[in-house]
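--- STAGE predict ---
source: upstream dedup step, 1 unique chain passed
mode: sequence only
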Amino acid sequence: MCHQNNPDLQLWLREAKVLQKRAKSTSLSRSLPVLRRLLNTKVLTNLSLIELKNNTSIIQRKHLLQMLAAENGARSWADFKQQVVTAPEGSILPNSIELRDAGYPVLWFPNATEATAYKDNHGGKVVKLGSQAAVIPQNWKS
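--- STAGE serialize ---
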């Protein structure tokens, strides 16, 4: 399978690359959210957040790809990659793309359950990011 022929897959690979740079950043506001996501999805285990921050050299691209897969309900990157490739183009996009293009207002919730309840009453689209979720306005267009 050739990655260059699938624009959606390219977006996911680029997302992992950006997240890897953020994870290794010296800025705590850039690195800690990504490091927490890695720990919360259990991609890296037996490490505390402090230990991971002090040893970001162990973080590889495969870890970020696995994290993205886990956050999207897949067992592995290989399974998620297959979902992306077989889905209609533009139907499975990285959350950063959806949120970037969402406009205003984007309402944030502590979990997907609360976001879904809000969406059911008010419309919109739920976008999960780690354990949190956002509701994008109904007039959002992909």
